[in-house]
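Record type: monomer structure entry
Structure origin: computed from sequence
Chain ID: A
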Amino acid sequence: MYSRGLPIRLMTIAAALLVLAGTAFSSHRAFLKRAEISDPFSGLILHVNRGLSPVAQAELEARAASLRDLVPSLELARTLSELGDLLAAREIYDSVLFADDSSAVAHDELADLLIEMGDVDSAEDHYFRALELDYKLERYTKAISFLHAFKQDESAQRIESLLAEALAKLEEDGQIYIFAGDYYKDRGDLGLALNSYETGRDLLPYNADLESEIEDLKKIIGVR
């Protein structure tokens, strides 16, 4: 259901990616409670302090220890990431994908991890590999938001192409039209935003919040 505060929103996802990269405002950095250990040669962040309680820390370490003797798994990679050991988590994700490169989930999660490490270019490869393997709404919105957040100088044409592809493949999903409306509205293309929202309304009828968004836009651009 569409709601101004709850749906997948372009700026919300972009902001979340920026926070992961550590490029947001200092208040966000404080929120993450970072105690970063970085590689002086690559500049990548290898470890962060998650601010875990001693009990949570011990439980995660025990889980990681129990998983280390098994085949490298997404569960182990996630556990290491929760512990803040980004380098070790990356190595496990790499092992998982070396064994099977067809896991969209692994590519997507590794991309998120790489953003946090500061390796934006590698993250881009994995976001788009995940999308290639599994073109669902959340992967399109994340890929577009990634471009919007990190590749603004070169992304406009790529975003337009990606958005057109998403609208073609997910034409029965009203949320992709709402996402498109958010993107166009943020860019200042209010006519395209209105068209996108109205299509979304046709697919997601009887939604007061979406209807209100449409009426507000009509007033701004003088459409009856």
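Annotation 1: Residues 35-134 form a domain with the Serine Threonine Protein Phosphatase 5, Tetratricopeptide repeat fold (CATH 1.25.40.10).
Annotation 2: The chain has twelve helices and two strands.
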